[in-house]
């Protein structure tokens, strides 16, 4: 009986000592000097432009490609830090893409296909509410992990037609979406206020639907729901941000 009392007393003492100790595993989210201070603003975003011209170009089994096109993407973002290392804000996006395909021939084994005078243009507007949290990785306060939680949606319009046959056929479409996404990333301060940021999507849930008018005569529609938890390297984004008080 006395042995049980001694063991029980030792367990109580050990629990009290362990509870009084503080373990620093290097992931303190509230350092003495925050990575981004409360009351700060962050303005940033990305800008992308691409253009291509193909003149009798061949790629694998596709020959005689004559086409031109471009892509534009503008993504501004504004955040307010309501607490040290935590901010909320808005992100907007505008995307526009055009493809004018004059000709292309597909030849594979006994399969032969061709496309002539195909045209497509589309633009898209998006808006998101953003919550961001930082986790500093070094005492110098130049490097930190962060995660963006985004909720928003998009609206896009597009038209395409094919004049390669005996008559012109085309369609006009409007697409809508509601999205929820989690994008972790890393931020590195290049100067006192300018930072380079890189993020990648790991979780996304969306509901999309579209209305289409074909040849100004018949109508169609579609809808799709998707939920995914995986590393999506195709959503890798790199941008610059500026912090000010």
The best one-word shape is elongated
Number of strands: 8
Low-confidence stretches: 10-23
- Approximate strand percentage: over 45%
Characterise this structure.
It is a single chain. The chain has 245 residues and is mainly beta. It contains one helix and eight strands. It has an eight-stranded antiparallel beta barrel with strand order 1-2-3-4-5-6-7-8. The protein is elongated. About 6% of the residues have low confidence.
Notable features of this structure?
245 residues, mainly beta, 8-stranded antiparallel barrel, 1 helix, 8 strands
Could you write a compact summary of the structure shown?
This protein has 245 residues and is mainly beta. 8% of the residues lie in helices and 73% in strands. Strands 1-2-3-4-5-6-7-8 form an eight-stranded antiparallel β-barrel.
Topology (SSEs and partners):
Blueprint: H1 2-20, E1 41-59, E2 62-83, E3 86-108, E4 111-136, E5 143-162, E6 169-189, E7 194-214, E8 218-244
Antiparallel strand pairs: 1-2, 1-8, 2-3, 3-4, 4-5, 5-6, 6-7, 7-8
């Amino acid at each position: 009986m006395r042995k049980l009392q001694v063991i029980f007393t030792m367990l109580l003492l050990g629990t009290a000592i362990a509870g009084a100790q503080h373990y620093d595993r290097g992931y303190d989210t509230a350092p003495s000097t925050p990575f981004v201070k409360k009351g700060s603003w962050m303005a940033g975003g990305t800008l992308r432009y691409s253009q291509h011209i193909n003149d009798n170009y061949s790629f694998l089994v596709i020959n005689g490609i004559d086409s031109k096109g471009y892509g534009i993407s503008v993504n501004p973002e504004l955040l307010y830090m309501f607490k040290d290392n935590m901010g909320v804000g808005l992100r907007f996006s505008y995307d526009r893409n055009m493809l004018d395909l004059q000709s292309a021939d597909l030849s594979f084994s006994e399969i032969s296909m061709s496309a002539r005078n195909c045209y497509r243009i589309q633009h898209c507007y998006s808006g998101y509410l953003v919550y961001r949290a930082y986790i500093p990785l070094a005492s110098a306060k130049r490097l930190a992990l962060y995660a963006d939680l985004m909720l928003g949606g998009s609206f896009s319009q597009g038209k395409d037609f094919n004049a390669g046959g005996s008559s012109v056929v085309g369609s006009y479409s409007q697409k809508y979406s509601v999205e929820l996404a989690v994008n972790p990333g890393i931020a590195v301060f290049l100067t006192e206020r300018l930072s380079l940021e890189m993020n990648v999507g790991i979780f996304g849930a969306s509901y999309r639907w579209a209305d289409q008018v074909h040849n100004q005569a018949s109508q169609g529609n579609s809808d799709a729901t998707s939920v995914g938890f995986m590393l999506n390297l195709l959503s890798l984004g790199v941008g610059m941000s500026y912090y000010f008080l």
